[in-house]
Design goal:
flat; 21% strand; Alpha-Beta Plaits; five-stranded antiparallel β-sheet; 5 helices
Amino acid sequence: MKDFTTYLMESTRQYVYKIKLAGDLPEGFMKKFEEELSRFDVEKVTSIKKTPVMRDQLDFPDLQNMDVSMFEVTLNYPATTEHLTKMAMECGMCETRIKMFTKDFADGWADKETKSVMEPEQAPILEKDYDKPSKEQKDSHKGYQEPMSNVDEEEDKPKFEVAGGKTPPAKTTNDLDMGVKSPVGSQKQKKPEPKSAAR
């Protein structure tokens, strides 16, 4: 049987975050950021990888002609991406140049992008031709073009039955018994008897 320490070590979970920063990093940014991360018990911080300067960056559609610095952080204590973003801002980065993802999210998105690239591109639905209409569609189309073909002119009733069968006509206030008495003045009202306030 495993002792408690071994069990605890095996059940320890780590939290991996992928961080992307657009443009030049402020001086001493990584040192300050790692100091801020120390409260979350840092396990590992990977070295920075940089993309070439590109006109349009996928994760930063509002920014142009910039490179992107990327690195991963492994923590033993969980942190939210919003918290990490705030920490990066305190270290001198502008909020619009920061993107934080959990590694699972980033990898899932990358897999989705790779899959969509590998699959053959399909034409947009709006550019496709309509399927040939069936007999039922043609018949219903004729009914819409000539609405009077659905009406029996002699009885002035539709030729088809509404789904659900025939329902009884709804009752309105006109169907209520009106009576012969006027609602005003036909009955004598009993006057209330005031109680004396004297005791």
